[in-house]
Amino acid sequence: MAYSNLIDNLTNVRGITYHDDYLYYAFGDGESVIARMPANAVTQISTGNGVSFLTGALRDINSASGYEIRRTTATQVAGMGFGSKQARFVPLPGVASLEEISADSLIDLDWASAQTSFSDNGAFAQQQFCAVRIYIDDSVLNPGQTIYHYAKLRIYTDNGVKIDWATYRFDIEPSKISAGLGDIRDLFVVDNRIYLSIDMQGLGMLGYVERTTDGYKPQYSLDVIQVSGVLDNPQQLASDGGAGMFVVAQDKLWWIQPELKQFEVVGGLTNGVAVVFKQVDGVKTVYVADDNGIYALDVSQFDFGNGADDPPVPLVLPAPTFEFDEGVIPGFLAWADEAQTNLLIADRNNNRILRLDLASGEFSDEVSTEAASPWGVARVNDNRFYVGCETEIDLYERILLVQEGVHALGIGLIPFQYINGLGLADTSSAPGYYFSQYTQGLPFGGTLSLQVNHGLCRTNGISYFTVHLENLNLATSRQISESFVDLRWGEQNGGFGFWPATTAGPKYPIRAEDELWYNAHLGAKISTFAADTGTNLLRVVFYNSDNQVVDELEQFILIDNTVYHTKLFLPRIGSNGQPPDAGVYPTLECGCLTFASKDDLLELDFAAWHPQGVGNYYVNIYRSGNIANLAQVGPVSSYEQLNTKSTTAAANPIRVGHIVGDCDIANVTIRVSAPSRVTNGYGWVQLGAWSQLSFTLLMGTLTHTPWAGEP
Known about the structure:
3 helices; mainly beta; single chain; globular
């Protein structure tokens, strides 16, 4: 992993958000300003084609508010600005098109001898090419350095003199894009608006600012437009995937459709601070954090469609679904992966980012922020994150540990030297590295990303490689030839200069340095299937341009694409102090189970298994929240084996009262899950299973009233 500081000496950093290749954030005490910085060091910011360039004309080729070049005479173009800030020109003779001029080559030209003008005695009757260096500002990230943008320019005659150009920035310098607005807590970018969770001189609200100018350094309106009622200490925002937003504010979670309606979703939070939302197969879940933990709230039945004057009844706040350890003070939440199976939580008190596996409920340390107190994380992809701390912005990257001198590096984030003789990923000898807590080793599955040291391969004259997979259990083998799509720097006109490109086998190329912007070591994708389950021999053969073998890797890997299984039965309830009969299960009547006394004994039968016996099962019983005293964790079996849960965490017999508490009637959910512990080298392959039962526990006898009804 790599953790580095990008910007320091800030104050009150909030609202860190990644949107459309830019990082947005707010900073400043009292009167926060919004800033943004590009995620990529090379960004195309302006293009033009066939733009008239008459004598005396000024042109903006930098998507800025001013002008960078002027046609001073019929034969001359001059740079705008004064002294060292005047635009400079380098002629490019012998060039036939802009496409021949790579963006990377612009910065390496002889700018020491560049001129403040560019001339052609033929008045540009024949096309001419040059490079232009445009002064921007002094560097914020590297004091003492100057920031320039670079353009490639074509001047030609076609019914008058015209110009084509493409302009690039080669920096990730931040730019302020708003005035001081108030105490910003969070922001959300959508179209031409930035929505803000903000306190304006003691008045908390949801509001927005609107874009007033475009370009690489846009500006937003001076005033915040309020679109909600007053909010008490508003904090994190989350989109509902449509026109609404969730806002957590002190003791409440609100849902707001800007300027239209505002509903309380749940109350009773203790210093509520964070919220994220996800929707899977119609199930809408909001995850909310306060001082006590994280609550998973099913809002699928919450009536967001009610009129503004007819708010739905707020939900009842349950106990935390995932409780924090003592000493944790939460900041904001963020999704750790595209599949939304893990959450990242800023722990402001212990200067760290935590990871929460939603399937298992396990918290783990993701990365330390050292001396800085973190507030939030912005995810770029599953392996690259920005971290917003109180006084700085940092970059956290999950990167492969590269072994020196080897061509084939590993699978995903797992180096080949950490795959043991059984073919299992085992990083336990490297404490703190990915998956190091799983000392028993992990099998592989899903789509595997083969990592190759392309730079070393080029140095050693390797041109391509082939990939072979042999299943030793079945004595079958195949050569990998499937294609994969990656992002590459394309320099095409329009957009931001990145384009998807397809790479295919069976002869996978050693990739050029400028093709590795998104995935520095990716060489091939290997899709594995249920038929590959077992011990496999992975063979990677490297060749030079004469088709001679230069190097070869052979590595055992254990592939397991078999799924987990779970089974769950309704709880058995005894009577008169006697335990319930084994194997005799009740049936629901009107969705209810009845009991006579809260002291009645209760037992729960379930099963969780996986052919290799890898991983754990988790049993949870919920009544408005997880009942921690009844939770249970244990190893899955290698076959369908019935388990009986009959005791609490304190080793006392389970009684109905442990579930219903002081209530005589309670809605109960029981869940057994077996999350996947098969890795693709980056995270978990989704092979897990879960079973769930929901019902009402009712004291006494269930009564029935006939209803004739209507057709």
